[in-house]
Amino acid sequence: MYHNLPKNFLEFSQKLNEHKVKYLLLVGETSAFGYDLLVEASEGNTQRMSRATYECGIDRKKCLPDLFMSSDSVFEIHRVPSPIYIYTSIKGMEFKMAYKRQRQFELAGVKIPFVHRKDLL
User: Fold this and answer.
1) Does residue 25 form part of some domain?
2) Which structural domain, as residue segments, surrounds residue 104?
3) In this structure, is residue 121 part of a structural domain?
4) Pairing mode of beta strands 110-114, 74-77
5) How far apart are the first and last CA of the chain?
6) How far is CA 14 from CA 20, 42, 61, 113, 119, in A?
7) pTM of the predicted protein model
8) Which of 4, 90, 94, 103 has the largest count of CB atoms under 10 Å?
9) For strand 103-107 and strand 84-87, is the pairing parallel, antiparallel, or unpaired?
10) 33-89, pLDDT tens digit by residue?
11) Closest CA to 33 of 73, 79, 87, 68
């Protein structure tokens, strides 16, 4: 299914896991355009998200916790070979319910929480 995730995406996911960021991989790489992540826009989670992205080499100004608190925001992290898009909300999807139904897969030793297909319908 998603056996060939790029090393940079796996490293980013590992950093999110280390910081206990609540996030979901929406579909995997939907095309050559990148990866879509949905993150919980709570105060504690945005603090953890900010630290994790900063430790991945993202400019501190682009990963301030307040930026991740904005609803309906999309952040793009340019990572070669594929960018990562971080959403703070998705119309019609409640993060807490989707997070409870997540499906976790371990790829190359990294646990990745995938959104359940029922939450994509």
Assistant:
1) yes
2) 7-115
3) no
4) unpaired
5) 19
6) 10, 20, 22, 11, 24
7) 0.84
8) 90
9) unpaired
10) 778 899 998 889 988 988 898 888 877 766 666 766 666 677 777 666 778 888 888
11) 79
Q: Cα–Cα distances in Å, from 91 out to 25, 32, 57, 66, 95? A: 16, 23, 30, 21, 10
- Tell me the C-alpha distance between 32 and 53, whole Å: 22
Alpha helix stretches (DSSP H) within 21-106:
43-55, 65-69, 95-100
Pairing of strands 110-114, 103-107: antiparallel
Half-sphere exposure of 83 (CA within 13 A, CB side): 8
Count of domains observed in the chain: 1
* Residue 32 forms part of a structural domain: yes
Whether residue 105 is contained in a domain is answered as yes
Sign of CA dihedral 75, 92, 103, 44: positive
- Give the C-alpha separation, 108 to 22, whole Å: 20
Residue 118 CA neighbour count, 13 Å, CB half: 8
